[in-house]
Design goal:
With 225 residues, this protein is α/β, with parallel strands linked by helices. The protein is 41% helix and 11% strand.
């Protein structure tokens, strides 16, 4: 595929619900987020929802489940060649074998970064996102600037995240839809051969599984002479 150009032609039929972005100042919220907050307040006042239960649900996806599930998938792919092959061939089944299933993750596709190919994920029309493995989408993922710019200037977007790739590296942008969600398998950093699977999972960030960051080896403290 040609460098720096999107290559996904899936159509969008976005009929799923949107999430809430708690913990942000109102000045940073978009129009949709403000409307969601207003609706949440009305429903709370009428007794239709329990704010505590809602916060627990959001926390579950955003922090406790969230990207940790995806990180475990990536770490398994790094240490288990057979699992990696299965993941790339049938990500939905491979991910489900680790117990990670649910709404917004019914049909998963995994794409792996290499020395010559780098993948990035976007949803150009809204915020389709694989909740079971990455939790709730970050605010920037849903923003209009990211959704439009990553398609036409992926290198510029990567630079904004502090990532500079060799010019020879091809960049492929995948457009998520209501039917298909993508998970980027980042490259395993060098110098991590002695790490356990759990230690490797701790290195994997949410952004690296979207394709906007690289995974770096842990900084090791030098032993005193």
């Amino acid at each position: 595929m040609s460098q720096d150009h999107p290559t996904n032609g899936h159509g969008h039929t976005h009929d799923h619900g949107h999430d809430h972005d708690h913990g942000h100042e109102h000045s940073e919220l978009g129009e949709m987020d403000l409307r969601v907050r207003a609706l949440e307040s009305v429903l709370t006042q009428k007794g239709y929802i329990d704010p505590a239960a809602l916060d627990t649900l959001i926390d579950t996806y955003q922090t406790r489940i969230g990207p940790r599930n995806g990180a475990r998938v990536v770490a398994r792919a790094w240490v288990d060649a057979a699992f990696r092959e299965w993941l790339l061939a049938d990500a939905t089944a491979a991910i489900a074998s680790l117990g990670y299933t649910g709404r917004q993750g019914e049909h998963m596709v995994a794409v792996a970064n290499t020395d010559t190919q780098h993948h990035m994920v976007v949803c150009t029309l809204c915020s389709c996102y694989p909740w079971p493995v990455l939790g709730l989408p970050p605010t920037w993922y849903k923003s209009a600037p990211y959704r439009s710019r990553v398609v036409r200037d992926p290198r510029g977007v990567l630079a904004d995240f502090g990532v500079t790739l060799p010019q020879a590296t091809h960049i492929r942008v995948w457009d998520s839809t209501a039917e298909v969600r993508y998970l980027v398998i980042p490259q395993r950093p060098p110098g991590t051969d002695d790490l356990t699977e759990d230690e490797l999972a701790a290195l994997v960030s949410r952004d690296s599984m979207i394709g906007t960051r690289l995974v770096e080896a842990p900084v090791r403290e030098e032993s005193p002479a």
